[in-house]
Every structure is written in C-alpha cells, then in structure tokens.
Amino acid sequence: MIEYRFAAPEHRADLIDFINYVFSQNSVPHDFKTLIPKVYADGRGYDGIHAIVLDDGRVKGVVGQYPVHASFGGAPLEIGYIGSVSTHPYARGSGYMIKMMEMQAEHAKETGIDVMMLGGQRQRYEYYGYSPVGCQYTYQVNAANVRHALRNVDASTVGWKRFADAAEAEIDLAYCLYQQQPITGVRSREDFELIMRTWRAEPYLLLHEAEVLGYMVVSGTDSVSELVVSDVSCVPALIKGWFAANGLKNMSFSVAAFDTALNRVLAAFAEGYQVSNCTQARIVNLANVLRACLTLKMRAGALSDGEVILQMDDEAPVLARAKDGQITMQETDAAPDVHLPRLEMQQLLFAYNRFAAPEVSCPVDWFPLPLFLYGADHF
Q1: Does this model's pTM top 0.90?
Q2: Cys-Cys crosslink for 296: which of 73, 114, 273, 286, Cβ 3.0 to 4.6 Å?
Q3: What is the pLDDT of residues 273-303, one digit of tens each?
Q4: Is residue 118 included in any domain, yes or no?
C-alpha cells in the first residue's frame, strides 16, 4: 500500500538510511548526519519537515523543506529550502516526486513561507515553478596573483583559528558581525557554528593584531563560501597568509553581489571571476518577497521612489510603492501594470542577466531584486 505523509520521529532512522543510500548511488558515499548536521544530527528534531512516500511501510521517496527565518535589511522573509530530494532507483517514473513536491508547496502556503528555494538542474525544477535567482561573484585567486599583486602586503599581523579552538567570547564577536550583515539566515547563537558546518565546511575565526577581525567558511582549504570581516583592507593580508600556511596554488571566493566592499578588494587582484545565480526560487507570497527585497535595496541607497502594480498568474494584483524611505504593499483591484505567468514574473524580479527578463515598464532601478542566501543556510 502506498502512503504519502510527513515523517514522524519513528521514521527518522529509515529516512536517513534512505537518503544516504540514494545519494551514495549517484556519487560518492554520503552520510547526512555529518553532511548537514543542522538538520540530521541526533536530537535536532527536524523529522517532520520531510514529505515521504511509504510502500508497505518502507520509505521510497523523500522531499525535505528546511525553514530559514531570514532578514533582508531588517525586513523578515520566511524561506523554505527544499533538499534531500530523492526517489528509490527502482521507483523512478512512478510520480512520487510530483506528489511530494506538491505536498511541500501546500505546506509552505499553510505555514507562512514567503519563498521556496532549492538547488538542482534548472529545467527539472521549472516544472514545479522554480527559476534561477540571486547573484554571486566567484573569484579565482592563484599563487601568481599573490606573489605579484600582494608582494608588498604584510601578512604577519593576521591569523586565524578554527571555531573549535576559539573562546566563546571570540565567537560572540564573530556572531555580532554576522548579525550586522544585510542578509542573514537569522542563525541563533547556539546554532551559529553548526550551521556553518553544512556540507562539511569548516568555520574559522579571523584575527588582526590578535583581535577578532571576522570569520570565514572554508571547504577543504581552498574554497571560501562566506567571508565576513570588520575591515576589508585586511583581506589581502589574510589571503597571502593563508596561501603560505597551506601551500596553495589556487583559491576561490564566493561573494554576494551586494557586498560591494569585498567585491572591490578581490576584483583588484584576482585572476578572474564568474558571475552566477546562487539558487532557484518559487514565490509563495509576492507581497512579502517584494517588501523584503525592496527594503534591502532601499537601505543600500539603490532605490528610487515609484510604484507599480504586479500580478502573477491569477493571484491578486499587488501595488508596490517606494516613497520617502518607506516600502508599502497593498492588494488592489486596479488593473496591473505588469501581468505575467510565474516563471516570467520571477525572471523579471530576480534575473541579473537582463536578457533573461521580459521587457516591461517598471521603475528603472527596482529590478533585479537581491534575493540571496549564504551557502551555509542552504539545505
């Protein structure tokens, strides 16, 4: 007998065994307890975020939705991040995934999620209403860049230590810096380190003159997915010191498009860079997504006053207005200025490659919107 439901605590062991098995079939061996400890470590209590399908009591499919309580320039945004999407190899083509994705979409509406996110092959998830969103720059820095461009940089004043070796007071200072970022996943202090260990990444405390400068999240020794410092002028010294200490030939740094200060520092000497989307998204509550993203853009000083009425699919039109430093949203019966199907609306709002966005009349500097999450907050 086939049963669709949300997982209960008694399904936990079978659920983790199942996703370990399916993902290990597709690539290297997986152990989700260590890969995503914020969700799967013992005692985390996230069993119920998974839609599952049971065949005579045995797990045959899983789709999880991890809740992220985000802040965009101080405006709240509720995000549901889809992950652990898996179907038993012998059950593919049975429609399990379609049903579980529908369950999670309905669950998102019922629980006040504003936008759903996920990673994966674009067209596979377009069927479920997802579009590429966000923008990040990935810089490649090599040993020659360091040797030539940073030859006069003094790296003796900087240092680092693993969070595991840091004092609680030092981590408190790093956490305060995190809370000051324009976009945060609202990580609790208790879970701050655990969240940054997602996908076996390692968080490091960064030091300047033995004082806390910030932190970074590193995969291996050469891929930095999050770099937060109180003074970006120290970044070249950190990179030079890190290269020397680890004997590296290359490093990569992923940086959000809105982090202009860090982008300028890395662009000055990196060998090159790539511009890419950071994830894919499906809007659940258009008004709340607009409010959060426009608030962030306004506080960055990159938003002119204006208004526009947007309608997505057959949902109620939303009047979005920016005026005198205030962002307001209102459902309206007025005719929309822009009426688009879901995928086109999402491209209009979020596509940094404007060739991918439909040509419509909107306030000139409103779009694209800065929808972004650091990798540690992904599922």
Answers
A1: yes
A2: 73
A3: 999 999 999 999 999 999 999 999 999 887 9
A4: no
Domain end marker among 276, 296, 321: 276
Contact indicator for 375, 252 with CB cutoff of 8 Å: no
Q: How far is CA 287 from CA 26, 71, 94, 252, 313, in A?
A: 39, 15, 36, 36, 14
Map tokens 């399904």 to a residue: 11
Question: Is 125 within the bounds of a domain?
Answer: no
Q: Which residue has tokens 């019922």?
A: 110
CATH number at residue 81: 3.40.630.30
Per-residue pLDDT band for 350 (boundaries 50, 70, 90) equals: very high
- Amino acid 365 reads D
286-299 vs 342-350: helix crossing angle, rounded to 10 = 10
Question: 223: burial class by Cβ within 10 Å (0-12, 13-18, 19+)?
Answer: middle
Q: Confirm whether 130 is domain-assigned.
A: no
Number of domains in the chain: 3
Q: CB–CB of 342/129 below 8 Å?
A: yes
Determine the structural domain holding residue 327 and report its residue range. Answer: 280-369
Residue 156 shares a structural domain with residue 191: yes
Q: Per-residue DSSP letters for 213-231?
A: EEEEEEETTTEEEEEEES-
Closest CA to 69 of 133, 130, 115: 115
What backbone torsions phi and psi does residue 358 show, to the nearest 5 degrees? Answer: -65, 150
Phi, psi (rounded to 5 degrees) for 180: -85, -5
What is the spatial distance between Cα 134 and Cα 350, in angstroms, rounded to a whole number?
Answer: 6
Q: Would you say residue 124 lies in a domain?
A: no
